[in-house]
Amino acid sequence: MLTAAIAALVAFAPPKGYEVGDRVENFTLKNVDGKMVSLADYKDQKGVILIFDCNTCPYSKAYNDRIIGLHKKYQPKGFPVVTINANDPKLSPGDSFEQMVARAKSKNYTFPYLFDETQEVARAFGATNTPHVYVLARSGNDFVVSYIGAIDNNPQQADAADKRYVEDAIEALLAGKKVPTQKTRAVGCGIKYRNA
Length: 196
Prior knowledge:
alpha+beta
């Protein structure tokens, strides 16, 4: 009985995923425009602001304009935003691919919004929440995790945040300095993993 309980806990444990300093494996996912996008497509950039996001979570909605703002600010500096939705649409119907297309269109996304249908990429990263940010810095031909966690310290109000973790991380990387805060707790809705 105890063995079965332990096995069940292991089966439903959240994915471990990457840590700061880890090299990220390439992945390829479908974008809302129907085209396939790979991390390797960004090899000419200084890095990528990778965000696990979704349509339905109130936290994702609260951060939506800030995510758009990050892309506008840092894409010209070599750190574009790439968002990924890993929610299982059977568990969260508002996160279907069709709803993703509608969301991207209504918000005029100028960055990829990728569908992680198998949830393999989210599991590889160890993403648990929406939004959950991974700032990746290019190192040679690889991407290395430089920051993991929240966008800032105020989910409700952008102008009330006094810690802007993602911006601080990127500014440090652009200046060739150490990222001041490398990991924070991602605040948001749990990713709807199937069998979880």
